[in-house]
Amino acid sequence: xxxxxxxxxxxxxxxxxxxxxxxIDVEQELIVHQPEVATDPGYVGSRQFRPYVFEGDRLIFSDxxxxxxxxxxxxxxxxxxxxxxxxx
Length: 88
Prior knowledge:
Elements: E1 2-6, E2 17-25, E3 30-38, E4 48-55, E5 58-64, E6 73-79
Antiparallel strand pairs: 1-2, 2-3, 3-4, 4-5, 5-6
C-alpha cells in the first residue's frame, strides 16, 4: 500500500511531508511507514513505527513527540474518501 502524510499545516511550523509504502502490524497495532520521498531526506529508506486506532472510516495514528521539545504529542487522521459516482 502507498500513502502520503503531511505532518504540519500550521503557519508557525514548517511543512513536513512524506510519501511511500506502509504496512499494518495488526498484532502490535502499529503502522510501519517506509518513506520513499520526504521533505527530510533522512527519512527516505527508514522505517517509522506509529501506533494506530480505527474509529469508523478513520484511521488515526498518534504518539508522543520524541525529537521536538516544542511538541508534546501529534495526531494524524486518514479518512476513507467516498467513492465518486460512475460516469456514463
